[in-house]
């Protein structure tokens, strides 16, 4: 948040002037796909329980 993004996003319109497609730089596309993947992982793990920080530290030091 608070981040300004300068991009070269272009919209393709139909005869009525309605936006029907978008063209964006590949780096922006890749970032969107990565964000979408992250959200999918979060959604899949939504039903998992949580553990305390102390328990997590124990798990990490026992490896």
Overview of this structure, please?
The protein is α+β, with helices and mostly antiparallel strands. The protein has one domain (10-61). Helix content is 44%, strand content 14%. It is built from 2 helices and 2 strands. It has a two-stranded antiparallel ribbon with strand order 1-2. It starts with 9 loop residues before the first strand and ends with a helix. The mean pLDDT is 90.
- Please state roughly what percent of the residues sit in beta strands, choosing from under 5%, 5-15%, 15-25%, 25-35%, 35-45% or over 45%: 5-15%
> What would you report as the Rg, rounded to the nearest angstrom?
20 Å
| Sheet of most strands | 2 strands, antiparallel
Report the order of strands and helices.
EEHH
Instruction: Name the strands of the widest sheet in spatial order.
Output: 1-2
Extract low-pLDDT stretches.
Answer: none
Total of DSSP H or I helical runs spanning 4+ residues: 2
Helix content, binned percent: 40-55%
- Total number of beta strands: 2
Shape estimate: elongated
Overall mean pLDDT stands at 90
Number of domains: 1
Cα distance spanning the termini: 36 Å
Derived structural class: alpha+beta
């Amino acid at each position: 948040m608070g981040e300004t993004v300068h991009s070269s996003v272009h919209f393709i319109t139909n005869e009525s002037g309605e936006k029907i497609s978008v063209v964006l730089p590949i780096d922006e596309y890749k970032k969107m796909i990565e964000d979408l993947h992250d959200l999918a992982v979060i959604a899949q793990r939504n039903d998992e329980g949580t553990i305390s920080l102390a328990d997590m530290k124990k798990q990490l030091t026992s490896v």
